[in-house]
Design goal:
The radius of gyration is 19 Å and the shape is globular. It starts with a strand and ends with a helix. The chain is α/β, with parallel strands linked by helices. It has one domain: 2-enoyl-CoA Hydratase, Chain A, domain 1, CATH 3.90.226. Helix 2 links the parallel strand 4 and strand 5. Strands 1, 2, 3, 4, 5, 6, 7 and 8 form an eight-stranded mixed β-sheet that branches. Helix 1 packs parallel to helix 2 and helix 2 runs parallel beside helix 3. The protein has six helices and eight strands; from the N terminus they run E-E-E-H-E-H-E-H-E-E-H-H-E-H. The protein is 34% helix and 27% strand.
Length: 209
């Protein structure tokens, strides 16, 4: 018999409040779990789990996603992770830690485009192994947005380092889905928009490489 339930995160630490009036902070994602049982050809019972994870808001600080990172990293080969994406990006290094977790997960991972995927949400999407794109989706790829603080030389060094990092690490995710020329256009400040049909076509072309 299959069993479904939702994982809830207990947010008891209120030592750092973004909104002083709100003493309860919601986790920036939702996880639903369905426990399933299958029988193989030899009659052996194989239990596994199917996780539905919803990332539908701006990516916040990495520490708010520790439960999610751990779940993805510790999922076993028989498990399935359906990662529903509908958001406008956010903290780029939160996205990177999630991408690192996806890269080592033993589960069967599906990225499901479920609305608008902008900025860091496109990076997460392209870092998955299998894809489902609904017909109503909108994607946008662009350069990073950041701010610096400190002495002039410190700000200059930080911007140089982040720019170098972006052009190296992010390029590995975007290309060949984006062409080299398109990635250069992004680095120079251009925004690139795509609809579902073009996303599907490009993913099919990548499979042919």
């Amino acid at each position: 018999m299959n069993k479904a339930y939702k994982i809830k995160n207990n947010m008891n630490d209120i030592s750092e409040l973004e909104f002083p009036i709100d003493f309860k902070q919601e986790q920036p994602f939702d996880i639903f779990v369905e426990e399933k049982v299958e029988v193989d050809n030899t009659g052996c019972i194989i239990p596994h789990k199917e996780y539905s994870i919803y990332l539908n808001s701006v990516l916040e600080r990495p520490n708010k996603y520790n439960e999610l990172f751990n779940l993805i990293r510790t999922a076993v080969p028989n498990d399935t992770i359906n990662l529903y994406l509908n958001g406008v990006g956010g903290d780029l290094f939160t996205a990177m830690q999630l991408i690192n977790a996806l890269s080592v997960s033993d589960a069967d991972v599906y990225a499901i485009a479920d609305g608008q995927l902008i900025s860091a949400h496109t990076l997460i999407f392209l870092s998955c192994r299998k894809f489902i794109i609904h017909d109503s989706c909108l994607f946008m790829f662009h350069n990073f947005t950041s701010g610096t603080y400190g002495k002039g030389n410190e700000q200059k060094a930080e911007i140089f380092a982040i720019t170098e990092w972006f052009e190296k690490v992010v390029k590995q995710i975007y290309v060949p889905f984006l062409s080299e020329d398109e990635f250069i256009r992004i680095v120079r400040g251009e925004d690139i928009w795509m609809l579902s049909d073009e996303i599907n076509e490009r993913l099919l072309n990548i499979k042919k490489l």
